[in-house]
Amino acid sequence: MLMRTDPFRDLDRFAQQVFGAGTWSKPASMPMDAYRAGDEFVVCFDLPGVDPGAVELDVERNVLTVKAERRPLPTGDDVRMHVSERRLGVFSRRLFLGDTLDTEHITANYDAGVLTVRIPVAEKAKPRRIEIDGAGDRKQIHA
């Protein structure tokens, strides 16, 4: 049998039921890391306990939306819940992507409770050389 270690947990649950998302309850969240690796932008979302079939990834214009649902565990007459701390329900997060990202070639992978989204940098945003015409020698510089 599991023992509770937080004496205020029941008070927190009661406050959440009565007042909704009040000062005692933490909002449902989808923690993420985002970084650039070479010519792609990588975003990792923590979604522990979420079935891969319950994850939706949409992009419209320059807005990437991640929606996931953590469903309750199966219950029955012989099941008695002793502790229920994991948040259930629908979680969503929106990212506003810059024009320098190629939203046509986004890829996603879900492994070990982490959704990894890779967004390539658009060709027009990559550094390129521009030739300069002038009197004398042709020179190249970085733009």
Q: Would you kindly provide a brief summary of this structure?
A:
By secondary structure, the protein is mainly beta.
Overview of this structure, please?
- The protein is mainly β and 143 residues long.
- The protein has 1 helix and 9 strands.
- The chain has a domain at 27-72 and 86-124: Immunoglobulin-like.
- Helices cover 8% and strands 38% of the residues.
- It has a 4-stranded antiparallel β-sheet, with no helix packed on it. A 3-stranded antiparallel β-sheet has the order 3-4-5, with no helix packed on it. A two-stranded antiparallel ribbon has the order 8-9.
- InterPro entries: A-crystallin/Hsp20_dom, HSP20-like_chaperone, Small_HSP.
- Strand count, sense and closure of the main sheet? 4 strands, antiparallel
Total strands: the figure is 9
* Helix/strand structural class: mainly beta
**Mean pLDDT, rounded to whole units?**
79
Oligomer: single chain
Task: Order the strands across the largest sheet as they lie in space.
Answer: 1-2-7-6
Helical content class: under 10%
CATH class category label of the domain at 27-72 and 86-124: Mainly Beta
The helix/strand series, from N terminus to C terminus, equals HEEEEEEEEE
Uncertain spans: 1-5, 22-27
Return the CATH topology of the domain at 27-72 and 86-124.
Immunoglobulin-like
Q: What amount of the residues lies in strands?
A: 35-45%
Provide the gyration radius in Å: 24 Å
Tell me which CATH architecture of the domain at 27-72 and 86-124 applies here.
Sandwich
Q: Which terms would index this structure?
A:
single chain, 143 residues, mainly beta, Immunoglobulin-like, 4-stranded antiparallel beta sheet, 3-stranded antiparallel beta sheet, disordered N terminus
